Automatic annotation (TrEMBL):
<keyword id="KW-0862">Zinc</keyword>
<comment type="function">
    <text>Probable mitochondrial intermembrane chaperone that participates in the import and insertion of some multi-pass transmembrane proteins into the mitochondrial inner membrane. Also required for the transfer of beta-barrel precursors from the TOM complex to the sorting and assembly machinery (SAM complex) of the outer membrane. Acts as a chaperone-like protein that protects the hydrophobic precursors from aggregation and guide them through the mitochondrial intermembrane space.</text>
</comment>
<protein>
    <recommendedName>
        <fullName>Mitochondrial import inner membrane translocase subunit</fullName>
    </recommendedName>
</protein>
<dbReference type="GO" id="GO:0046872">
    <property type="term" value="F:metal ion binding"/>
</dbReference>
<keyword id="KW-0496">Mitochondrion</keyword>
<dbReference type="InterPro" id="IPR004217">
    <property type="entry name" value="Tim10-like"/>
</dbReference>
<keyword id="KW-0653">Protein transport</keyword>
<comment type="similarity">
    <text>Belongs to the small Tim family.</text>
</comment>
<keyword id="KW-0811">Translocation</keyword>
<keyword id="KW-0813">Transport</keyword>
<keyword id="KW-0472">Membrane</keyword>
<keyword id="KW-0479">Metal-binding</keyword>
<dbReference type="GO" id="GO:0005743">
    <property type="term" value="C:mitochondrial inner membrane"/>
</dbReference>
<dbReference type="InterPro" id="IPR035427">
    <property type="entry name" value="Tim10-like_dom_sf"/>
</dbReference>
<keyword id="KW-0143">Chaperone</keyword>
<comment type="function">
    <text>Mitochondrial intermembrane chaperone that participates in the import and insertion of some multi-pass transmembrane proteins into the mitochondrial inner membrane. Also required for the transfer of beta-barrel precursors from the TOM complex to the sorting and assembly machinery (SAM complex) of the outer membrane. Acts as a chaperone-like protein that protects the hydrophobic precursors from aggregation and guide them through the mitochondrial intermembrane space.</text>
</comment>
<comment type="subunit">
    <text>Heterohexamer; possibly composed of 3 copies of TIMM8B and 3 copies of TIMM13, named soluble 70 kDa complex. Associates with the TIM22 complex, whose core is composed of TIMM22.</text>
</comment>
Length: 89
């Protein structure tokens, strides 16, 4: 496949920006997939049998799982911000 660029071999800034946006979307899709996987793991770990009401053990387990999810999300979000900041300079 031919490299897209200008006559002197430099890459077109629009192509570079498009590649950056595609990479960001791919990372976002991976993050979303990880969120869904994490939610499935928490459900399988915490909920023995679904019923009309959660018992205290299940409720506590899900609360801890949510806390871990929030911590993980914040960590990943901060990492994304660092990557975008480095890419923007």
């Amino acid at each position: 496949m031919e490299e897209l660029g200008g006559p002197d071999g430099d890459r077109d800034p629009a192509v570079s920006e498009l590649q950056r946006l595609v990479a960001a979307e791919q990372q976002r899709a991976q993050f979303t997939a990880q969120v869904h996987n994490f939610m499935e793991v928490c459900w399988d770990k915490c909920v023995d049998k679904p019923g009309s009401k959660l018992d205290s053990r299940t409720e506590g387990c899900l609360a801890s799982c949510v806390d871990r999810f929030i911590d993980t999300t914040l960590s990943i979000t901060n990492r994304f911000a660092q990557i975008v900041q480095k890419g923007g300079h």
